[in-house]
Specification:
single chain, 169 residues, alpha+beta, NADH Oxidase, 4-stranded antiparallel sheet, 7 helices, 4 strands, globular, binds flavin mononucleotide
Length: 169
Amino acid sequence: MDVADAIRSRRTHKQFGSEPVSEETLRELLELARYAPNHHLTQPWRFRVLGPQTRRRIEELAGEKEARKLQRAPTLVLATAALSGDPLTDEEDLHASAAAVYAVLLGATARGLASYWRTPTCFRDPLVRGVLGLGEDERMVGLIHLGPRLSEPPDKHRLSIDDVLTVLP
Ligand SMILES: Cc1cc2nc3c(=O)[nH]c(=O)nc-3n(C[C@H](O)[C@H](O)[C@H](O)COP(=O)(O)O)c2cc1C
């Protein structure tokens, strides 16, 4: 699959097969993230693959409704940005970390996997952050859901290029 096809065919999936993504594939996907564009090459992205024990502890803290949502995907990867405290650098590092997450989603799409970028509110909870070992300097960028593809989510309405493009003289 070429890049344009991966970009066009990626969808937010909320249903997944039960088989976790293999460690080998996961490493290949996260390896792609390392190539995201990044001012001053601060490489702020951090990834945590959530194992069964961690998932259980988070589900207990999150409550039943949220736990059910977290159980939708067999593989969850938390992406964060390690920030320096300098406002300009932090803004750019968040952008770079988002680009890194997108690289993972596109890589997953190209491999026929379903993916979903989520930012669950409970991951802002100090207790949940504690379970994840998040430092004060780390900001959630996304909880990447991955797993076998089960469905074909519909395309969503998007503005046309003419709605968003201005060509300046
Ligand atoms: C930073 C970010 C946070 C997101 N957080 C959520 C979320 O918490 N819950 C959710 O359902 N979707 C979330 N999404 C996914 C968007 O809702 C989704 O990309 C959008 O509806 C477009 O659909 P598509 O991905 O299928 O093209 C998030 C996307 C981004 C980029």
